[in-house]
Amino acid sequence: MADTPEPSSVVTSLPGTNSAQAARGFVRSVNDWLMECALDDTDISEILTGMVRRLVAAGIPVDRVMVAFKTLHPLYEGISYVWSKDTNSIERATHMGVREDDPDWKGSPLKWMSDSDINFMRRHLIGPGAVLDFPILESFRRNRGTDYYALMTPFVTDRDSTMGANRIFMTYMTRRPSGFSDEDLATLAGIQRRFAVSCKMRITHEETKTILQTYLGSDAGSRVRNGQIKLGDSTKTRAVIWFSDMRNSSSVATHVGDDAFLGEMNDFFSATAGAVLKHGGQVLRYIGDATLAIFPIGDDDGNLETACLAALYAAAEAQINIDKLNAAREEVGKPAFDYGLGMHVGDVIYGNVGVPDRVDFTVVGQAANEAARIEQLTKQLGKRVLVSQAVANFISCPTTEMGAHELHGTGVSVKLFAPDFSEACHRLELMRAG
Question: Which residue of 132, 207, 209, 383 sits 20 to 30 Å from the alpha carbon of 331, by its own alpha carbon?
Answer without folding.
Answer: 383
